[in-house]
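Q: What residues go here?
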């Protein structure tokens, strides 16, 4: 055992002494702050990077994990928006505050650039392990590149394009543009109108006169060819400069795909480093964006309004997610819940602001009101359990409300049980009936939710239901993360919107 540990430490030291010798670039371990500054100035000649050179410097394990988590929060939010069919503009509105908070890229700060660079490569290690993970990572990173590109000034965009040195990214001459002017204008006129909002013919003509065109093989922008948005001649597509991002994004996706395959081939070298593998496994198995920094916010929307009586009111229960409504329905019907259901509902009620005294009163009333259980039996068999959930018995742990990932990891409910996630556990007929009648969704909305359920994207389905029952994307006013992966987060947003609507009526 001692020899094995010693060998691992020796291997880490040997790995740390390596030097990356890429033509024109030297990335060393233990570099000085000035050398590090020059390094990231070369990697970020503009405000964006294609991440072509892997980092070899030193960071702490804490930075390794936290930087990756922050980037993953952004990518998960982007993935959620895409799955909910948000437009590019809506995605930008939702993701922009999250980017400014977690991955700022418009500053010259060395630490921000270092975090951006390392976090990208760390997530490569996480998401290179299967075809599905690779495709998901490429899709999200490419969308992130597009969002950042559109957030830059035109000057910064031009500077970024110049640093890429991509093949075929060459502008045609004025003479060639003049020869093809009629065909080029006819092809891009509709794009100028609908993408750039140039509704006036004169304005479109003036824009066309100033616009430059790129000539490249048509397969490089195949999606634009299919949509008839580029002019094709002799196998070449003539791409207007305002659409160059499509070509840049395709080149980035192709580069990243090859890089992820190479990364997967080198993964076995990490098998001796027992510090990194648990972190990488944790991140790649679907880390949820609510695991950090949100538990402290729970309960603020109600602020002491939740007690043993008020929790039954329609004003409170209409803010419950479907899983909590199902638990409350089962409790009311049976005057009892089995262990998993008691735990899930108890933690949820704790999270929305029910204190321990009110919780004991709530559960006592619920269990004894049906006449099947005496107060003495409740005190003997159940009181300790609920006090334990509040950290007043046993090891006195302050348990947190269960997030969706925890709920989905628990055993599925059997007959007579009500815990779990209805989007996963209910059959199609039961779920359809509840969505259409209980939540008043129209047929197309129900179909959209069921599509997500069929793809096992249960938190996406729940987020869709929230938006459909709360006026579209109005929830973005409350939080800079629109994806809902926690029942208590669903309640908090719903309750805040409810109060806001009530204040507006008054």
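A:
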């Amino acid at each position: 055992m001692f020899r094995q540990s010693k060998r691992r430490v020796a291997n880490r030291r040997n790995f740390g002494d390596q030097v990356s010798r890429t033509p024109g670039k030297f990335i060393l371990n233990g570099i000085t702050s000035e050398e590090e500054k020059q390094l990231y100035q070369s990697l970020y000649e503009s405000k964006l990077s294609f991440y072509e050179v892997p980092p070899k410097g030193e960071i702490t394990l804490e930075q390794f994990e936290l930087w990756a988590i922050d980037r993953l929060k952004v990518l998960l939010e982007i993935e959620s928006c895409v799955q909910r069919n948000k437009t590019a503009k809506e995605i930008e509105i939702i993701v922009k505050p999250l980017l400014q908070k977690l991955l700022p890229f418009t500053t010259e700060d060395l630490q921000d650039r270092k975090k951006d660079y390392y976090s990208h490569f760390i997530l490569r290690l996480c998401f290179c392990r299967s075809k599905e993970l690779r495709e998901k990572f490429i899709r999200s990173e490419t969308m992130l590149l597009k969002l950042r590109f559109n957030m830059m000034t035109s000057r910064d965009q031009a500077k970024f394009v110049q640093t890429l040195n991509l093949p075929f990214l060459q502008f045609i001459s004025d003479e060639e543009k003049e020869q093809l002017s009629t065909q080029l204008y006819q092809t891009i006129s509709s794009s100028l109108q609908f993408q750039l909002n140039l509704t006036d013919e004169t304005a479109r003509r003036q824009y066309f006169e100033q616009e430059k065109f790129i000539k490249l093989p048509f397969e490089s922008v195949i999606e634009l060819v299919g949509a008839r948005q580029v002019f094709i001649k002799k196998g070449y597509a003539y791409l207007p400069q305002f659409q160059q991002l499509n070509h840049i994004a395709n080149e980035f996706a192709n580069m990243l795909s090859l890089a992820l395959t190479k990364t997967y081939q080198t993964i076995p070298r990490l098998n001796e480093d027992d510090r990194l593998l648990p972190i990488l496994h944790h991140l790649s198995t679907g880390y949820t964006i609510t695991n950090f920094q949100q538990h402290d916010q729970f309960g603020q929307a109600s602020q002491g309004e939740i007690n043993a009586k008020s929790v039954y009111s329609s004003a409170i229960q209409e803010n419950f997610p479907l899983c909590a409504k199902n638990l409350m329905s089962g409790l009311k019907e049976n005057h009892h819940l089995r262990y998993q259901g008691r735990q899930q509902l108890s933690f949820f009620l704790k999270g929305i602001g029910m204190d321990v005294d009110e919780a004991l009163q709530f559960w006592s009333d619920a269990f004894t009101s049906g006449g099947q259980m005496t107060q003495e039996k409740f005190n003997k068999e159940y009181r300790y359990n609920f006090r334990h959930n509040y950290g007043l018995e046993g090891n006195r742990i302050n348990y947190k409300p269960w997030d969706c990932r925890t709920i989905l990891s628990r055993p599925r409910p059997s007959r007579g049980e009500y815990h779990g996630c209805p989007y996963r556990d209910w059959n199609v007929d039961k779920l359809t009936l509840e969505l259409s009648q209980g939540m008043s969704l129209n047929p197309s909305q129900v179909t959209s939710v069921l599509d997500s359920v069929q793809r096992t994207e249960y938190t996406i389905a729940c987020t869709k239901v929230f938006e459909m029952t709360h006026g579209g994307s109005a929830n973005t006013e409350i939080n800079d993360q629109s994806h809902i992966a926690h029942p208590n987060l669903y309640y908090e947003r719903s309750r805040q919107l409810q109060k806001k609507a009530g204040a507006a009526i008054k």
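A: Context that may help when evaluating the design: The first strand starts at residue 20 and ends at 22. The chain has three domains: 2-163+252-284, 166-244, 295-505.
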